[in-house]
Every structure is written in C-alpha cells, then in structure tokens.
Write a structure and sequence with these properties.
The complex is a heterodimer. Chain A is α+β, with helices and mostly antiparallel strands. Chain A has one domain: Jelly Rolls, CATH 2.60.120. Chain A is about 20% helix and about 30% strand. In chain A, the strands form two sheets. A six-stranded antiparallel β-sheet of chain A has the order 1-2-3-9-5-6. The termini of chain A are far apart. In chain B, strands 1-2-8-4-5 form a five-stranded antiparallel β-sheet, with helices on both faces. In chain B, strands 7-6-3-9 form a four-stranded mixed β-sheet, with no helix packed on it. In chain B, a hairpin with a 4-residue loop joins β4 and β5. Classes of the chains: A alpha+beta, B alpha+beta.
Chain lengths: ~190, ~180
C-alpha cells in the first residue's frame, strides 16, 4: 500500500468519525441539560449568548427558537419515575399540583420531537384545562386508548414518546432551585 | 505498523476538526432551513401560522397551545421594524433570534405593560429612526417570533384578528 493510500483511508475515516461524533453529541435535544429533577431534565442556558457551541447546536436540533429560561423553562422526560423509557403502548398516570409558573403545559412528542396523529387531536395538557381535585392535584392518563374516566392524553401507539414540560414565567422560588421543584409525576400503570 | 502513525494522527485531527466544524455551523444551517420553511409567506413580513398539528410542524417540538406568528427577516435591505400589539389578559411574547439561533431580544405582554410597542432590528451602523428602540445584531438573517397562548385551540377563531394587529416590515426611510 502506498503512503497516500494510508492517508486517504485515515482522512476518510476521520471525516466519518467526526460527522458521527457531532451527530451523537448534538442528538440529546432538550434532554440532559445538566439539571435533573426525577425523570425531567433541563438546562437554564437555552437561547442565550452565554450558551456554549455544543448546547447551542443541541438546542438548534432539539428545540430551535426556544426561549431563554427567564421566559420559559423547558423540561424533557424520556423515562417514567422508575427510569424505564416511555412507551406509547403503555398506560401512565401523569399527575401533579399547580406548577410555580404563570402558565404551564405538558406536550407529547415522538422521540424526534414531533407531534404524532391521534384520534382525539390532543397533544398537550395545560394549567388552563386540567381539573384540580380537593387536594389541589390534577391527573391525566397517557395511554393509547381512551380511559374509562378522567382526562386523557393520547399515547403514541407503537413507538416510544417524550414529554416536554413548559413553564412560562416560572416563579422566583422555582428559579432559585429548579432541581427541587415539585414537577409532575409519571408513573406506569400497565402495558 | 509505524507507517500508519502519520495517517492515524491525520485521521484524528480530521475527526476532531470535523466535529468542531459541524457543531459550530449546525445552528446556522438549521436556522436557514427554518427561515425557508417559515418564510413561505415572504421575508420581512409577518406570517400568522396555523396551529401546530402532525401535518404542520415547520420546526421541531412545536407547542400545540401556542399561536405562532413569525417574521423571517433579512436586514441586507435595511433595518426591520416590528410592531407588536399584545392581546389583553393572556401570555404573549416577542422573541428575536439571529442567524446563530441566539435570542437577541425577548419581551412578554406583562413587560410591555399590555401596550403596543415598536422594535427596530438593525445591523451595526445602519441608520435607524430617531428615538426608536433598537436591537443591534451582527447578522443579516434571523426570525422574529410572536407566541400567543391559547387555553384551547378553538380560541384561535376569536383571537386571530387580534394577533394580526402585530406586523413587521423593512424600514425604507429611516430619517
């Protein structure tokens, strides 16, 4: 083998490895932004000039046009409370108390971050459309089929799903310690 | 084996440089794609987008609870004027993103005191109207986005006229 052959092979391999590494490094989207709270994770650095190049590229891929944290905190969950990946064929209880924000919503996406068609044409629940019980808690069933009673957020049949929790104008207590804030629970009930 | 030392080192350098270059340039190219997709109604004008559905998702992770109005802009023809009229009693915000996807301006309805306002987006050195509130940027291209919260998608019928009071255009005569 000639010397330039070896260089050609190595450079081609380096290009492929470099592209693959960049793709893998930027593929985490909104997840794993450094701040963890149960199955939820976020970063408070989205959309600001201070953000490093890698975070900027991740957000551009996973949440282009995202707002900075003072305006909106975006949490992402890919697993339930036990750490198992969210499965669109399973039934989950999503519940919590009113969140410390001017407005909030939980939206269901596929693993790539896109809405999936469902018969109810519903992809989110928000602070304005959940009912609070006597204890001040709301509860929604995430499942492929409509539950007998209670609010329903249709699951993504046949594929995993991710949840994004948006908190618009989060309160000062929340911003002081987002990792300790009370966020919605995601508990698997069956498959 | 020693004959591979140089090539392997070259390969590692190429790999590292490729990774860094992709990470650096990815936001710019994704922003270009977003400008392309949101700019169907024209550049430097506000498009009042339909609500996000599985069939209509111009960007990743769209919120089905928000009515998005977008103004993909290009400052090469002059500064951009954005006029925003908040809708009373509900969350709305204007955010301006540059070509690198960085947020260069955000104001919500509460910060605006619920009142209409005008923002000028301009390159360094571009002449702007006297007394205007100006955001300076180092990039020509970007997207200005207005989010309006809907408690229910059905509200869009009643709120569409209100959100259409917000607009954007090139400032043709800044003096």
């Amino acid at each position: 083998m000639k010397s330039w052959h070896r260089y050609a092979i190595a450079v081609a391999g380096g290009l492929a490895v470099g592209l693959g590494a960049a793709w893998a490094l930027t593929g985490n989207g909104f997840g794993d932004g450094g701040i963890h709270n149960g199955p939820w994770s976020t970063s408070l650095g989205y959309g600001t000039k201070a953000t490093d190049a890698l975070t900027r590229a991740r957000v551009a891929r996973g949440g282009l046009l995202a707002l900075p944290a003072k305006e909106t905190v975006y949490w992402s969950a890919k697993t339930d409370a036990s750490g198992a990946p969210l499965d669109g064929d399973c039934r989950y209880s999503l519940s919590g108390t009113a969140l410390d924000a001017r407005w909030w919503s939980v939206t269901i996406y596929d693993a790539a971050g896109y809405l999936v068609a469902n018969p109810a044409n519903r992809w989110s629940v928000n602070g304005a459309n959940v009912a609070l019980d006597a204890k001040g808690e709301w509860r929604v069933t995430v499942a492929p089929d409509k539950p007998a009673d209670g609010a329903w957020l249709p699951g993504t049949k046949g594929q995993p799903f991710h949840l994004t929790l948006r908190m618009y104008n989060p309160g000062q207590d929340f911003r002081a310690d987002p990792a300790k804030a009370a966020l919605p629970r995601i508990v698997k009930k069956g498959c | 084996m020693r004959r591979w030392l140089g090539p392997v080192l070259a390969g590692l350098i190429v790999a590292a440089a490729t990774t860094a270059a992709v990470i650096h340039f990815l936001p710019y190219s994704l922003m270009n794609v977003a400008i392309e997709r949101l700019g169907q109604g024209g550049i430097n004008r506000m498009s009042y987008g339909n609500l996000a559905t599985p069939a209509r998702q111009p960007v990743v992770r769209p919120s089905p609870d928000l009515a998005y109005s977008s103004c993909p802009y290009d400052l090469s023809a002059g500064p951009l004027a954005i006029d925003v009229t908040p809708v009373p009693g509900r969350y709305s915000s204007l955010s301006v993103f540059d070509a690198a996807t960085d947020v260069i301006f955000v104001r919500n309805d509460v910060e605006a005191g619920g009142k209409p306002y005008r923002i000028i987006v301009a390159r360094e050195g571009q002449a702007v109207p006297a007394g205007a509130e100006v955001i300076r940027t180092g990039h020509d291209k970007g997207i200005a986005l207005i989010r309006l919260l809907l408690k229910d998608p059905a509200e869009i019928g009643a709120l569409d006229a209100a959100r259409r009071q917000s607009s954007c255009r090139v400032v043709t005569n800044p003096k």
